[in-house]
Write a structure and sequence with these properties.
Blueprint lengths: L3 E7 L11 H9 L4 E6 L4 E6 L3 H16 L5 E5 H9 L5 H6 L5 E5 L5 H10 L5 E5 L2 E5 L11 H8 L2 E5 H12 L7
Antiparallel strand pairs: 1-3, 1-4, 2-3, 5-7, 5-8, 6-7
């Protein structure tokens, strides 16, 4: 029986004084019992194969990396179908895209936000920026560069129960590399 392909997104890798090479990261995750561990770029994007459930993958990797690295590493896991959906997503109107000089971002969440959380998220969105919910993600179009946005990321993180952010382009490139399709389609 073939194992499932899972995409693992780690928060806070290679920020501040923390530096972990892709080889070290792959070795640490393989030590958690996973096969065919691959890294994509140097920012905590991994691909693994396993028969384990998504919940089990999150728990095992978070526990294993904290033991190995000495600090918590929030972990967000998506299936191949999830990555295909995200890579192919086009949630923004052309007018919003034209008005922005920022890159499209995908905010990965642990759980699907309820209406109360989504209302609070929308209250955090600065004028000129757009956030569109989708399953366990928020598509974000900042008005300019990510670091120039006045979005309160710490508050967003607290409201949603934890996040990590990737550019839409990164997810498309991962779909192209690991799923053999630039748009992430089946």
């Amino acid at each position: 029986m073939a194992s499932d392909l899972w995409f693992v997104f780690l928060r806070g890798m290679n920020l501040g004084g923390r530096r972990v090479t892709n080889d070290e990261l792959c070795t640490a995750v393989a030590a958690c019992g996973y096969e065919d561990v691959s890294a994509y770029q140097a920012s905590g994007n991994l691909v693994i194969r396993t028969d384990a459930s998504q919940t089990s993958v999150v728990t095992t990797i978070e526990d294993g990396l904290e033991a190995e690295l000495g600090y918590p590493v929030p972990t967000f896991v998506r299936s191949a179908a999830d990555l295909r959906r995200l890579a192919a997503s086009e949630p923004f109107y052309d007018s919003a895209l034209a008005a922005s000089t920022g890159k499209r971002q995908v905010i990965l969440l642990h759980d699907r936000p309820d209406d109360a959380i989504l209302a609070e998220v929308q209250s955090l969105v600065p004028d000129g920026e757009v956030v569109v919910p989708d399953e366990r993600e928020l598509h974000w179009l900042p008005a300019a560069g990510l670091s120039d946005s006045p979005m309160d990321i710490r508050r967003l993180d607290a409201v949603t129960g934890g996040t990590t952010i990737r550019t839409h382009g990164t997810l498309q490139r991962m779909a192209a590399k690991f799923l053999d399709d630039p748009k992430g389609n089946a």
